[in-house]
TrEMBL record:
Gene: RTN4IP1
A Pfam family assignment: ADH_zinc_N
Protein name: Mitochondrial reticulon-4-interacting protein 1
One Gene Ontology cellular component annotation held by this UniProt entry: mitochondrion
Taxonomic lineage: Eukaryota, Fungi, Dikarya, Ascomycota, Pezizomycotina
Domain Enoyl reductase (ER): 16-318
Species: Lachnellula arida
Amino acid sequence: MEYPKTSKALRFSSIGGPLAVVEKEVPLLLAHELLVKVHAASINPCDIQLWRSGLVGVVAGDKGMGRHYSGTVVAVGSNVKGWKAGDEAFGLIFHPFGQGTFSEYINVNPTSDLITKKPGCFTHEQAASIPLVALTACSCLDWLPPPSASQRKVIVRGATGGTGTWVVQPAKVAYDCHVTAICSGKNADFVKSLGADEVIDYTRQDITSTLLSTRAATQPYDLLVDCVGGTDLTPPISPITKPQLLHPKWAYVTIVGDKTDVNTPGGPLTYLTNPRQIYRYLKGYLFGPRYACIALFKSSHLDQVVSLAERGEVKAVVQEVVEGAFDEREG
């Protein structure tokens, strides 16, 4: 195909300002880049938080919306190996001051941007929903202890959210963990279908007392993954004031931090806004259980997700698809 001259994109130019579909010139393809025609892009809480955050105001000019995509490679830079025009791909680009994936075309550097070939078992919509949540989930599971004679035990708080569903599935099928999911009762059957062994309904049960009663009857938990935020289940400053859920050698990881405001950025940035998290990290490092607020991504994790999907061991769940975002319509 002829190299495109322009691309429609969803962009904004002020903090929390109006989103507009604009036509931008497609940059010339550099030797180390791929040009990808986007078929589907997904929205994530971090996109909304960045849009409303003062962080994006550091650099003037308009910025793109969206970080995740699935599409087809239409042009390949002269120095790029392993890719050809026509390959279907999905991935994550994190250019908060530049291009976004709500665009007809994006330029992708396969050595610095997370990208892999899309398996046939995923639709473009499913593939576009995966990168950030699945990569975050895999990073959380990196905190599991090494396998031992006893089955490892994982708690997933917010188990039916985007990241939570991707913690539950690999924890069960790839790591053979006993998974306790925390969610509302109406989602119990759904999370069990993903692999959860036990479900705690936070609308009817006290989470801490229920976990402690189970812990008393068996071994301590090895990993708690918190996809909700706040401090309800964080490791105690003193075990005298708050009983310990976790084995002292293992870990509590959160993808949110102590914050509870859904409109502000989470992840490691919360170490700056909640210094208590720094103390908790240091205390856990020295005495256990370990504590971390994470947002680390490894390209190998995306390949791991593809392998699990191709074997039919995990599935992508899409709640809603909005089509024709760039169509010009009246009214």
